[in-house]
């Protein structure tokens, strides 16, 4: 079993080839860093164009690196949602073209399910059920994974995701956005005093597993304004005192942003253990899970609860094709795939795209119908 995975849901164009036994034969990611710097975020029309420009090349490179041709594939897996419709379409069209031309089954993948399940490629002992925290640019999810395709949402964000808060904080602090905001804040925070700015921890009064980052973002913006930090002056040109000030904000922001996650994660583990006492693992994935501070803090939470932390390597936490191919393998094995599409679909063919696509039903303690 050999599957090609294609991912274009946001700003990375990615493809990978993975074997049924989990062997990664190739992994290619082309990121739109230049566009992010230029537009200060993802601009859908430009992102679509950038995907279209590189998709053929990225897929070809993935096949070349794996020393395979399309004829050697068993199926094509592609992210169909959630994400930007225009961007998803580029990957889905490409997947249909290959699957149609080479008579291959096609597997539509949920981007967040892929972020979670790639942990099963990394950690072979990881069986269902488990708890997973998915933290990225657009999502902040706490999920009880009962089985393949069977998920219960314990918590989500009421406004922004933590990755968005990292990205905005980085932008306001005048950091180098070519690395995306997260890594830039992580690096600068090492220089700062995390207790110097007193940000309040969000949603403490809510005894649930939901998140909110809009308020913390506002607190950070106000702190930056009150210290007269000018984002137009890049940090590389800032004075010593200005740099210290920025580093203190980065460290204080990161501490509170992650404390919020620690608190909600602890509660989610309690809820999940009541529903499924056999749970042994917490899986943390998505772009923000590549942050070492986040990993260290969550490791403490997990240990306190007698569980084990599974966190994929960095390149598998941020968007990638491997997670899509692997999730395709999991679905293919249980017969969940579509037959090869017809060759030469017209311009007007309606693809199955799901820009908004919740992962599992919502659960809240005390709401018995959710079980
Ligand atoms: P989603 O998965 O919600 O659709 P996405 O696909 O755009 O969003 P990912 O690639 O999964 O996002 O994650 C990108 C996010 O992760 C960005 O917000 C980025 O700042 C953040 N991120 C990446 N590395 C780090 C890091 N070291 N520390 C904190 N945040 C990070
Ligand atoms: Fe993602």
UniProtKB/TrEMBL annotation:
Task: Tell me which domain of life the UniProt entry assigns to the organism this sequence originates from.
Answer: Eukaryota
Coiled-coil blocks: none
Task: Give the UniProt keywords, A-Z.
Answer: Acyltransferase, Metal-binding, Mitochondrion, Signal, Transferase, tRNA processing
Location relative to the cell: Mitochondrion
Molecular function as annotated in GO: metal ion binding; tRNA N(6)-L-threonylcarbamoyladenine synthase activity
The biological process GO terms on file are: tRNA threonylcarbamoyladenosine modification
Q: Which residues form the Gcp-like domain?
A: 23-326
Per its UniProt record, the required cofactor names are: a divalent metal cation
Catalysed reaction(s)? L-threonylcarbamoyladenylate + adenosine(37) in tRNA = N(6)-L-threonylcarbamoyladenosine(37) in tRNA + AMP + H(+)
Q: How is the cofactor bound?
A: Binds 1 divalent metal cation per subunit.
Name the GO cellular-component terms: mitochondrion
Its assembly, as annotated, is: Homodimer.
Family affiliation: Belongs to the KAE1 / TsaD family.
Functionally, this protein is described as follows: Required for the formation of a threonylcarbamoyl group on adenosine at position 37 (t(6)A37) in mitochondrial tRNAs that read codons beginning with adenine. Probably involved in the transfer of the threonylcarbamoyl moiety of threonylcarbamoyl-AMP (TC-AMP) to the N6 group of A37. Involved in mitochondrial genome maintenance.
Protein's UniProt name: Glycoprotease 1
Q: Which organism is the protein's source?
A: Cephalotus follicularis (Albany pitcher plant)
Protein encoded by which gene: GCP1
> Which residues of the complete protein appear here?
87 to 457 of 479
